[in-house]
Structure formats: C-alpha cells, structure tokens
From TrEMBL:
Residues 1-31 are annotated as: Disordered. This is Uncharacterized protein. Residues 1-28 have a biased composition (Polar residues). It comes from the Bacteria.
Length: 279
C-alpha cells in the first residue's frame, strides 16, 4: 500500500468519526436554565439581524424621531435661496436689506422705490399680456432702488401725457426707449432714464444724502451684472447684448448727473471704470 492510499484511508476514518460525533452531539439536549436562556438569546439576535428586520427597525426609528415632541425655543434654520440676482426687480427685498447693512439706514417703500431702468411698459409693449400676466418677466427685468421722491418726479413714473423739462412725456419716453432697444442701442436707451433725473433741480443734492448714496450704490451693482437686456416681441423674448463699453457709458453718465456735471468728466469715467473692475 503506497503512502497516498494510506493517507486517503486515514482521512476517511477521521471524517466518519467526526460525522458520528456530530450526530451524537446534535441528539444531546441541554436542559439547564442558563443553556436555554443562551439559546433564546442567540435565536433573538439572529432574527433581529436579518435584512428585513433591519429595514423595519430603521423605519421605526425614523417614525419615533418624527413623533418626538419639539423643544420650545429650538428651531431649525433653513436658508432660503433666491432665484433672482442683484440688479433684477425680483431681488428687491434682498437689495433693500443689503443697502441697509451698507449704510446703516433702513430701506423700504417709504424711502425708496424700485426703478425699472428700462421702463417695463417699453419692454412689454407688444406682448399682449397684462402686467399681472407678465409678472415673471417683470421680476427678471433690470431695476434698482431709487430714492423715493426722485423716482416720483421722474418722467417715466406714472402715465402723464404732459411734456416735461426733458422734452418727453411718459408716453414718448417709453416709445423712445423701446425704439432704441429695438435698434440695439442699449446704452442710449439706459441713458434716457438717467436724463430724466438730470433735469430734476434737486437731484444732485438728494444724491448726497444717505438715501441718495444707497440709490447710487444700487445702480452701480445693477450695472455690474448687466450682460443683456430682454424685451418682448409678441410672445417671444428678444435679447440685446450689453458690452463693457455700454456699461461704462451708462455708469459714467449716472455719476455725472449725481455730481451735477453737464458731461462725464475724466474723474466720472475713472470712477465708473473702477466700480466696474476695468482698472
């Protein structure tokens, strides 16, 4: 008998002996109290650890947390994201808060009004929709916080047909704004709005007040983010691109009017470039 055969027989004998021992062991019942308790514990643990029971326990845990009583005075703060950005009409409330923090004076409808830089009536002229129906479009339009009385005195506010110091009525002002936008001349359309403030006798004086400084800062922030202007042509939006030079012209013109200059000075232009990050 060779070595391989001897080893095979030895393994078979050990396997048979082990099988007999295992059967005999399984047949023996341990009725001691501590053994019975241990068996029950193992059975319980095995049952709890199944995937199905894990899911059940997780659901119960979540439900329990939901049912827990709220602790008085403790609230979870959720920061609400706004879908509008600086310079848009829909950003008005956030812009008012920003200006308050900037100069320490509250901004509300009593101190400022939202100035649609390109009159909304001009932008929405051919849509065939009411202002209410065009709410979403209006909230995305460019606007800034202008000092209350200055805005009230502007030719574009209201619907008067009376010709003002600018040589325009509210109707011709909107028509001219629309015509300039359709021709692609965004800068001139915007400066037409600024022209309405240039002819107000007290505008430059108001511009030096805190409310006026807040308005100037709001205008500057609007101009920084202006990359295109949209108007309605029937039921479609038409967008006109705004170049760096367009932004510079409009901001320099605003600074000139605030400082009572007949024409933008070198300083007005330099300050506008700095504000726009062009220096």
């Amino acid at each position: 008998m060779n070595t391989y055969t001897q080893r095979s027989q030895t393994v078979q004998q050990q396997s048979a002996a082990g099988s007999t021992t295992s059967k005999n062991t399984a047949a023996i019942t341990d009725n001691r109290p501590e053994a019975v308790a241990q068996l029950k514990l193992k059975s319980s643990l095995n049952e709890t650890c199944t995937p199905q029971n894990n899911v059940v326990q997780l659901v119960k845990s979540i439900k329990k947390k939901k049912d827990e009583p709220k602790i008085p005075g403790v609230t979870k703060t959720i920061k609400k994201r706004t879908k509008y950005r600086e310079g848009q009409h829909g950003y008005k409330k956030s812009e008012q808060q920003r200006l308050k923090k900037l100069l320490g004076k509250a901004v509300s409808g009593k101190t400022h009004q939202s100035e649609h830089y390109f009159g909304f009536a001009a932008l929405n002229q051919t849509s065939g929709q009411s202002r209410k129906e065009s709410g979403a479009f209006e909230r995305n339009a460019y606007a800034y916080q202008e000092a209350y009385q200055s805005h009230r005195d502007h030719v574009g506010t209201g619907s008067s047909k009376q010709i003002g110091p600018t040589g325009l009525s509210s109707e011709t002002y909107r028509n001219d704004t629309r015509m300039l936008l359709e021709s692609g001349d965004v800068s001139s359309a915007g400066q037409l709005n600024t022209l309405g403030y240039a002819f107000q006798p007290d505008f430059s004086k108001r511009a030096q007040t805190i409310a006026g400084q807040q308005a100037s800062n709001s205008f500057t922030h609007m101009m920084r983010g202006m990359d295109s202007v949209s108007y309605m042509q029937g039921n479609k939006q038409v967008s006109v691109p705004v170049s760096d030079y367009d932004r510079l012209e409009q901001l320099a013109a605003r600074y000139a009017v605030e400082r009572k200059h007949s024409w933008p000075t070198d300083k007005d232009i330099a300050d506008a470039k700095k504000a726009l990050g062009m220096l």
